[in-house]
Amino acid sequence: MATPSTLGQRRTAALLLSPFLGLFAAVTLAPLVYAAWLSLFTTRTSGLGFGGTESVFAGWENYARALSDPALRDGFLVVAAYCAVYIPVMIGGALVLALLLDTGLAKARSFFQLALFLPHAVPGLIAALIWVYLYTPGLSPVIDFLESGGIHLNFLSADNAVFSAANIAVWEWTGYNMVIFYAALQAVPRETLDAARVDGAGAVRTALSIKVPMIRPAVALAVLFTVIGSIQLFTEPKVIYNASSAIGSSWTPNMYVQTAAFQNNDFGLAAAASLLIALFAAVLSFAVTRISRRGSKP
């Protein structure tokens, strides 16, 4: 039986949690419920197109249409290729930079942390616009320099769009994850590192055998958040599409949803596709979490 003090603690906890729970319900649960409801309906015309439109119950029809649409499937393949390029480069680069800053030879650590973090402070849309400018022939000094050396690259072509989008994201997020890894490295016991040096381990051996294994949870968390963010890829390819149109309006799953909703006015299909994306992100996040936990076990 709960005592009066226990009941008081529960009421206090409920009172303190109520603002968060209210916002969570308003901005997360309510949109999910509305999207689920919207996905069960479709808009159809009557009277050979002259009788107006009506919303009719479609059941699972929108989900079947989304799953059978090659454009959505191709969008997931694009995201897979993007992850294969982006995640190893960004996570690996952030980890190497953090390890370099953590060495005893590193000077002006605060300056380099700030300098490497600054790209993340630039809003994603602005960063994408900056890089699209650098990708545009006739405007970009980078392309002019490459062409002066006999190198001709079309960064806005369909073949190079994955690498161009991944490059923008690497520029934005490497410094952010570097700060996370560097903070985790500061928690590594110094006596452990001193013992490794006494045993004759060099800087590289110490980094690979001691530092990296001890900050594995931080690396796994960064990979998890990166995977979730990659599935929601939208800003960079959308800006590239507006500049070139070489990749199509449904190049990624999120672009597919926007095209279905705001160009084709098919909100039922857009809602169904968005829920499928959310489900895919949840399953993939669970898989990444299980793999990281299994890898952290001795």
Report what the structure shows.
There is one protein chain. By secondary structure, this protein is mainly alpha-helical. The chain is 75% helix and 3% strand. The chain is built from 13 helices and 2 strands; from the N terminus they run αββαααααααααααα. It has helices spanning 4-38, 61-68, 70-102, 109-121, 124-135, 141-148, 161-186, 190-198, 203-214, 216-231, 235-244, 253-263, 267-296, and strands at 41-45, 53-57. Strands 1-2 form a two-stranded antiparallel ribbon. α5 (124-135) runs parallel beside α11 (235-244). It is flat, with a radius of gyration of 25 Å. The two termini are 42 Å apart.
Keywords:
298 residues; mainly alpha; two-stranded antiparallel sheet; 13 helices; 2 strands; flat
* Biggest β-sheet strands, sense, barrel: 2 strands, antiparallel
Average pLDDT score: 87
Q: What distance lies between the first and last C-alpha atoms, to the nearest angstrom?
A: 42 Å
| Percentage beta strand | under 5%
Low-confidence residue ranges: none
Class derived from helix and strand content: mainly alpha
Number of helices: 13
User: How many distinct beta strands?
Assistant: 2
Residue share in helix:
over 70%
Query: Any idea what the shape is?
Result: flat
Task: Please trace the helix and strand order, writing H or E for each element.
Answer: HEEHHHHHHHHHHHH
User: Strand arrangement, largest sheet?
Assistant: 1-2
User: What would you report as the Rg, rounded to the nearest angstrom?
Assistant: 25 Å
